[in-house]
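Researcher: Please predict.
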Amino acid sequence: MIAKPQILLLPGLLCDARLWRDQVAVLAPLATPVVADLTLDDRIETMAARALAALDGHFALAGLSMGGYVALEIMRQAPDRVTRLALLDTGARADTDEQKRRRRGLISLSRSGQFRGVTPRLLPSLIHPSRLDGPLATEVMEMAERIGKEAFLRQQEAIMHRIDSRPHLPRIAVPTLVGVGSDDALTPPILAAEMAALIPGARLRHFADAGHLPTMETPEAVNAALAAWLAA
């Protein structure tokens, strides 16, 4: 009996396994899913190393947002172990000075005891406007509470210190899916198009009526894209 391939799923900032819940349910017959814990480190490089150490052999790799930054670092650290790559709602550029300024503001807010005020500020950037008053918004905020302040601070430090990955993209030599919510305000479709243009043979997919978290917002569309990517 041939063993199913592994698929390593990398969550985004303030996200846990709930981010990938609907994908795990659908993809489990095709691959063995492993959701990485990206809450313990304050650098993208160490997040990648920890995720790599948690499983053996070869695997498909999918990351969303911050998880995409980690996925690109895994492609640098262990390219021979990755069989295919999916980059969702992420980008290859380093933070701009303005983005770092905003992150430091959120860090200061959290350290002053107002961590619970962070997610409502971020929420309009995370999900489609039509879902801001619905149950999904509550789920996103609950997920952030589970991650907690200290992990949030580590993650923001990691994101601010990430490198510009664009020079590395042409070296990616595995089947690659680049996906993005059509209404993603945080990592807009133009960043996805930039990555897809730089990665040889990459396929670009837009998820209609989704913001930054299409795995939760439009899971059926994401599931179909990932299933096709795994089967290609």
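Model: Residues 9 and 201 are 22 Å apart (CA to CA).
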